[in-house]
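Continuing from the previous page of notes. For each protein in this section, the sequence appears first, followed by its structure tokens. Read the first protein now.
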Amino acid sequence: MATNEANKKIPVIPGLAQDDGDIFFMKEALSEARKAYSLNEIPIGCVITHQSQIIARAANLRTTNGNALHHAEILAIDQACKAIGDWRLDDCRLYVTIEPCPMCAGAIIQARIPVVVYGAKNPKAGCAGSILNILEEPGFNHQAKVIAGVLEEECANLMREFFKHFRKQQK
């Protein structure tokens, strides 16, 4: 579970960007992304907060676990549901280093998470505005407010560094 520092109370008002809180929690998501990188996984990290406390954290583990479903967001949603004791995470906020893919965006909608904060865009698979915007699609019975670009450069640089390293290994 989270450390005392990670549990530090930072007021978060659902639906409104809170710069200090968003930056603090995105740094925690970046820590998870670095764990993924150290495992030679695509470096995506996610944390979920409830009442300004981290209740779930996960790194991308698709390769490690040999499971296409083990994206950071999916793993964190599973942890958060267990922590809350319900599938509805309607009082939570999700922080992820990279814009969610279609699968993760769908899971976010199904879990009723009202606010998603992400770092860098995902131009090849992003479904929070880059290719589609599943999270704010009015045709669904639930939408999530999207706050994009929190620590964007740091999140994007970690991805660039990973893929530069990955391409060198492939040669």
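Done with the first. The second protein uses the same format. Note its length before scrolling.
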Amino acid sequence: MRAFLQVIKGPGLGRKITLREGQLLYVGRTDQADVSCPENPEMSSVHFTIRWMGNECQFKDLNSANGSYRNGERIAESLVQDGDQIKTGQATFKLFMGDSAEGDTTRPEMPAMNSPPPLFDTKPEVPLVPARPPGSAVVPAPRATPASPQPAHSHAPHVHAAPMTVAVPSIAGSVGLLIPVATDVAAIAPLEEESKKLASPDLDTPQFASKLAEQEKFIDAIRVLAFSMGKLTVIEWSMRCVQTALGDSLSEIDKRALDIVQQWLGGQSEELRRAAHAASQEAEHSTAASWVAMAVFWSEGSMGPPPPAPVVPPGPTQCAHAATGAILLAAVARQPEKAPDKYREFIRMGLELVGGGK
């Protein structure tokens, strides 16, 4: 027996959240939740809980700002059944259970952590430096304190009225493979536990990615490459993957987004970075191309309004998260049954960009 929630409308279209019987799962916009949906800005930080119990699920809204709706009716706590639709924020989930879940072949399952992180990434900065002796420790670099934490169920990120004394991230020199040792990238990339166990100080990052791909752990192989690349390189890689997978089927909005990304890669400017953000918003953050554009926006600078507004820097891994999301969406946007073949091709392209492995 299987059960899962799948986004059938809105941000994250096609994404599946696996339910395990008896497990209480917290879902929301930030990483305070078990399942983070940062692509859905109208969800609360922790929006709802759901527990699968046999032939029904127990759903509870956690006093969210915008509420939850079951088949169009607002609910606070309810039993939900196979086929019910639950709207939270801008996304509508559908519950698949039992036979309907077993027979579903519309899209390959995507892990819960396939989306970029919330706006305030509080993980320590990891210095991205060229080759170091294998197995040497990664020493976190000092980083300015981010804005005050949000309340557990706040709707929008808090921004101080006074300017923040933080350094604006830069992408200078961010090209090629910047984390060359498997164990170092495994420490920062959101990998499955089984994949982390395969990392070794004796493996370089391309070898680690190749090993994961050989065991058909494609998504983690993509994450390993994305989190080890310089920002310019991972953005170029994600753009190539989207163009390869979608080609002529790209909408005009997505074509404009990728055109802006191409211009930005040719010469970074604040004007083009802001234009990339606008292009991603125009696509409603729902397409692979829109997440390439978000990777550009999250590569450097501030996520807040232009000066004199306070600087709100992106977290150290947000660019890699956005690029990963773009690549995974590109694999399933057309002919999702062929996603494994696309993953293999994307990994080959990534290895080629960093000059390592087969």
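What the second structure shows: The longest helix spans residues 231-246. The radius of gyration is 20 Å. We return to this in next week's lecture.
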